[in-house]
Amino acid sequence: MEKRAKGRTLMSYAPDIKVVDCTLRDGGLVNDFFFTDEFVRALYRANIKAGVDYMEFGYKASKEMFDVNKFGKWKFCDDKDIRAVVGDNKTDMKIGVMADVGRCDFRKDILNKKDSPVDLVRVATYINTIPSAIEMIEDCTKKGYETTVNIMAISKANETDLDAALDLLGQSSVGTIYLVDSYGSLYPEQARRLADKYLEVAAKYNKKVGIHAHNNQQLAFANTIEAVGDGVDWLDATYSEMGRGAGNCAMELLLGFLKNPKYNIYPVLQFIEEHMTKLREDGITWGYDLQYLMTGLLNQHPRTAIQFTGDNRKDYSEFYKEILAQE
Predict the structure, then answer these.
(1) Which of 60, 156, 207, 299 supports an S-S bond with 202, CB 3.0-4.6 Å?
(2) How far apart are CA 311 and CA 298, in angstroms?
(3) Mean pLDDT across 218-225
(4) Residue 314, Cβ neighbours under 10 Å: how many?
(5) What are 141-157's pLDDT values in tens digits?
(6) What is the structure's pLDDT at 327?
């Protein structure tokens, strides 16, 4: 029989749900984070009106590793740039940033919480860098931040390694552990089984579980609501599904689905009409297409599909043969 944690159904009101807007961060991977100040301020206002719980502004990337002249400011998320948008953020919505293991000078660039407008640091890691992720998590916890951790590329992970990683993270101070479908390769049944695994660890160590889905097989929304029904509380989404490659779970779909009265889809639709449509008209490309379907089906990183898109190729069958040869 299908398990539904906490007695949730598709019509349930789930007060523990947290919606996280990742448009600037995951969407920034599409346009190298070159969003206008007008866009960012309007997105901030739209998220507040929509009842979104957290807005992720981008990465805390190392300026030693990445050229500041080749990326927009949200690749680096300087506190002064965030403050220019949010001021003292006297709202119910909290501010997040992502820190990649090995790509962030976290000791220097992430200040004490009392000196920063940021509330949440989201640490991104692979299975083989879990010890370094825990080091970052503990540093950020000591500085006063809420923390989450994204274990990336779990569809490629050995199950024994994943079990060990989850247990190590359970023993850490992290607040929420994310199930991440990096390659958009998971189906709802697989998402449910993984969610059960994560939730079992979360119950043991008093953690929350989140989901971050990609849309290579047009299943980001399906996998997200499958996880909701299973008891996953933290849900990532982006406006018009803007994100790397095939994009993410669409915010407009998610807020339309959730029954929590605090969420309001209308400001999301307004923002899409006024700002997301213009991005597409300006030539920014993201979202489901055949090349992303193929890498999702084969459980491959979408970098080859991103290159295919950038080269304006349309020879889909030839591309399929090329990536099959990489298996």
Answers:
(1) 207
(2) 21
(3) 98
(4) 10
(5) 999 999 999 999 999 99
(6) 79
